[in-house]
Every structure is written in C-alpha cells, then in structure tokens.
Amino acid sequence: MLDGTESAPTTLIPSGGTGSHIAGRIVVLSRSAGTGWRWAMSAGEDTSADTSFSAAGAAALPWAAGDFVILGYGLRSSTPTMSAEGIAASGITFGTVTERADDAVATGHTARLGIATGSVSSGSGTQAPTLTATLSASHTGVGGVLRIREASAEIDVAAQSVFPPRNLVSLTGMAAEDIVSATIERDVDTDRTAVRAASGVDVTGEDVLLRVDGEQPFGVAVTYVATLTDSTGGQWELVSDAITSTVTADVISDAVRGIGAAVTIQAWPSKRRTREATVFNVGGRLVSVGKPRSGAQAQVTVRTETDEDGEALQAVLDAATSGVVLIRKQSTLSGVDGYLAVVADDEERMWHNEVRFWQLETVEAEAWPDVLEAAGYTLADVADNFETLQDLADAFTPGTLLDIALFDFGA
Length: 411
Hints:
This protein is mainly β. The chain is 8% helix and 48% strand. Strands 1, 3, 4, 5, 6, 7 and 9 form a seven-stranded antiparallel beta sheet that branches. Strands 12, 13, 14, 16, 17 and 18 form a six-stranded antiparallel beta sheet that branches. It contains four helices and 26 strands.
C-alpha cells in the first residue's frame, strides 16, 4: 500500500524474443474512501486501417458512478499520433477523458503507446466498453480499459455474550462491488477452516452476509478471512481483526443448536482404533484383506461441578445433532479438541455435593454437515429483551433490520 511519500519507482522490463515489443507507463491513483480497490478489465482490437480508432472490449464490465477508468492503446508503428481518446458503453455516461501519454518507440520494432484516464459520471449496468481515439495516420491496433472502483466491503467480528462463546461474523457493503459469491473461513495460525454454512454462499444482489461461528478454539487468537468473487470472476480477500474466546472450563457443545455445558475433562487414557480384516492362506502364504481403519474409540471421563452444569450436559447429550458433540479444552489442545459421537454415557452422582462424574463412550466423528448453520440469536432472545414490537422499534430508531441482527441480545 502506497501513501504518496515513496520515492520514484523503478521498472524492470523482461527481455523478449524476435518481434516482441514491451512498453509501459506508471499511473498512480489516490483513494479518498473505502477499504481498498476493486478492478476489472476488457480489451479488444481495431482491425480497420483508418484514422478513427475503435476497439470493442470482449468482456462486459459492471459500471457505477464514480468508477475510474484507465484507457490503454497500442499501435505497431511510431508514426501515428493519438488524440481525442474516449470510451463508451450503453447506458453509461463518462466524464472528461484526459490524455496521459502518447509515446513513440522509434527504434527497433517501432510502436506507439497511448494512455488516458477518466471516470463514470452517471449510469449503471453491465456493458461491454468501446475505446475510441483519433489517429494522425491510418493504422490498426489494440485497446483496453482497466475499470477501478473504491472498495466498500468490510468484514467484522464480534463476540456474542452467551455460553458457549460464539462469534458473529458480518460481511457488509458487498452490493456496491457486484459481489456474487462469498466464503468465510476461520484462520488460526494460518490454518483455515470454513465457517459453518459459509462456503461459496450466493450473495448476488445482497449487501450483507451474517454467520455465527460456534466452533472456534478457546484461548488463541482467531481471525476471519472472507473470499469475495465479483460478477467478472475477480476474487478479493478481507481479513477481520483478531479475537480470542476465553472460558473458565472445558466445554462440550452442539454448535448447530447453540447449546453447551461447562465440564472438566477428568481422564482420556487411550484411543483405540480397529480394522475389520480377513486372513487367507494362499499356498501357505498368509494374505490379509482389510477395510479402512476405524475412527478412534475412547472412554472419556468428565466432571460437572454444579447441578446447572450437569443438567446442561444432559441437554447436550439428549439433543446432540446427529448424536455428535464438539469437545474443546479451556486452552485448545490438538488431539483433544474435536467431534465425538457419544454412543453411551454413565452418570455418577455424589450424595454429598453437586459434583457428577460422566463416563462417555465415544467414537471420533466428522463435523456436522456444512448445510446446517450454527445457531445465533432467535426470536426468543428478542422477546426476552422487549415486551412489544413498539419497544423494539423505539430501541432501534432510526435503524434497520441489520442493526437488530448485529445487536447483542445476550448482554
């Protein structure tokens, strides 16, 4: 990212082969707003040798008021000069186009390079552009436009004040960039994992995408990365601020239902894996034919400290989506954090206090299907905070439904 205080840049032109010619100019843009740049290009060829240069772009580009354009022209001769550079697209009005370069390379394989800049003053839509110019002598050539737009899309993350901890990830400002697909990933030490129900989401015409992450590790910094694809196929990445989820216990949860229990992992002595196999005696040689190795099976002992925690664990085991739970250490630990199918459980109560010990017969499992979105705040959460719709409207005046979706009703 340049801020305008850098020294003059240098360029390196690669050596070409017989008949090749390379030329270029550096153009500097200053961004007044937004979060970055978005660009797309379209190029074409003028095959009619006359003084009216006209090259129709092969690709249609999305246009909006304020888009900046850089026009580029190339001729296979240094003789013709250029003037009156321009651009047109159906339904789009472009402002004044200013010539920035009309350079001749008169040695070797001669050529002329032209550059001009302008912007869209009004109109919107997806249209193929046509580049025009006036030449001082008849010739053919190529032309292309680089459409540049100040980016508006942003990614933010906020911790919801609930147990188990959940992060609300919001993508906003996508409509102005013609974003058609979005993916949100959780990034921990450069290891990326797709957030539930956030892979390749069709957001055509949508300005906002919200997803709840209820599967993040505890005790480590997490960032979220959004990969955005626009209508031209261009891809862009946005990165959120770092956020760390902290808890005071280990956690067994169901992110799909949004429920969980605070526990202490008391013992996890071993993991056992099996393989179904048959041994054949072939001419005195033993041949083993087996199926793939199973997932790890283990007996996990956990402890709950209070009746409230014990009943919360009962609820998780009763209602676990597909019989699968997510177990996470208070400070994430590889080999412990993961998904388990609980096939049997024994509850041992203490007669003199609220402590309970649980023997969980488990098998390592895959995560829940990606189509199942993690639970966020529900209408019941709204009802717990407001008695009437008028109360809700008064609290968010002025405001939009997005303000309600981003509000922390658990606070």
